[in-house]
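I hope you will forgive my troubling you with a question about protein structure. You will find the record immediately after this paragraph.
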Amino acid sequence: MLRVAVIGGGPSGSCAAEVLAKAGIQTWLFERKLDNAKPCGGAIPLCMVEEFDLPDSIIDRKVRNMRMISPSNREVDIRLDPLGYDDNAYIGMCRREVFDSFLRNRAADLGTTLINGLVLRIDTGEKRQGPYTIHYADHSGAGSTGEQKSLDVDLIIGADGANSRVAKAMDAGDYNVAIAFQERIKLPAEEMTYYENLAEMYVGSDVSPDFYAWVFPKYDHVAVGTGTMQKNQSLIKGLQKGIRERATKRLYKGEVIKVEAHPIPEHPRPRRVVGRMALVGDAAGYVTKSSGEGIYFAAKSGRMCAEAIVEISRNGAVIPTEKQIKSTYLKRWDRKYGATYAVLDILQKIFYRNDSAREAFVEMCGDKDVQKLTFDSYLYKRVVMMNPLQQIRLTLRTLGSLVRGQGLAPKDYTPVPSAVGRSEGDFLAEEAAQAVKAQSKDKATSKDKSTSRVS
């Protein structure tokens, strides 16, 4: 019987383990941080809810309005209602710790052996062809270092993120990683009501030179974050300050309850299958450009990889070869999603290169044809074809927007106005209160240092 280890208990690993366990294949799922909360906007498309049978209980908010905000603070709403979608259409907003835990536990309920452990080393056999021995620290018991153990398996699925140890073991090759930074912020009731079914996306060099920043609603707080490519990662804290400043009037009296940061891949790895080791999700590099979407593609890649293994192993009766895994899993994945990644890469290069282009991007988002095309593609993960007349019209609108954007790009960035009608006096009073609080904190720190020196 085939023995498979899945390293990494996020969406890609859990969905792979679920498929394998359902087929009766011996499956182990490794995850060190069972309360893991990757910094992530947490948006999932409607098709994922249906395709992966996700319950309402793990969805914090059902967003039906996306608000795009340009560098000059031009705001464009993309609403589902005017586009003809029914009341059941929405973008799901989730907390990753809740979402990931559900998928992981479902895989365990189906027969996956869940190991709360950190993989330390992988012996890969001659020419990395196996058999494979996984050396890990089991953290299911007491003690901070864990109990040293090992496990022999026939096949490994690497779902362990951008810093994948499986990728290192199989010599998958390096890739550039972007950095995501996010703060979870609790807001007063009025501000949270504003974000009831609304998510905001900000663009501008102040919030990201090559991506976008977000304010996404969760159960009882908003996730406020940004991301940037590896070459600009030293700027990340300044960029986070940028989104906090631009959205400051909508984050009135916001209290930071958690700060998160994590690397995300900029492109697929050079090698995704070596021997009987396969990469999925972030470990493989399956995060889209432009939108930065990774959750759906992570889960889908885990499922497709596992389905290919089940098929070619005849439900675990035989051990697959490297050639078989490549010709099923990789070939099907690239054929299904290769064009999607290529198109989004082009869009990012066009619309994220400077503030003039970003102004054009937000203007384009006000076009109903663009909105329908975007939501059809995102919500249902299907390729939507335009007729020749639509293509010509869209090309002309894009060129016009790019020209107009050159005159709209601001020299300075300013906060967007309050969305719930708070006065300027409210913000001045809050700024004064924060200044007094910071001053008191500095005095307390100085006093503690003085006391320490006397002691």
User: Anything to note?
Assistant: The CA atoms of residues 119 and 401 lie 50 Å apart. The first helix runs from residue 11 to 22.
